[in-house]
Amino acid sequence: MTKNSMLVLGMMSGTSADGIDIALVKISGAPPNLKIKLQGHTKQSFPPAIRTEILRVAEQNPLSPGEFSQLHARLGQLYAEAALNACKKLKVSPRKIDLIGNHGQTIFHQGQPVNFLGAKTASTLQIGDGSTIAALTGITTASDFRPADIALGGQGAPLVPFADYALYRHKKLGRISLNIGGIANITVIPANAKPSDVFAFDTGPGNMLIDSLVQHFTHGRQRYDKNARLAWKARTGESPVLSELLKEPYVLLPPPKSTGREYYGASYLKKVLQMGQRYHRSQNDLIRDATLFTAASIRFAIEAFALPHSKVDQIIVSGGGAKNPLIFSLLSDFYAANGIEVVKSDHLNVPTDAKEALAFAILAYETFHQRPSNIPTATGASGPAILGKISHALPR
Ligand SMILES: Nc1ncnc2c1ncn2[C@@H]1O[C@H](COP(=O)(O)OP(=O)(O)O)[C@@H](O)[C@H]1O
Ligand SMILES: [Mg+2]
Question: What's the pTM?
Answer without folding.
Answer: 0.95
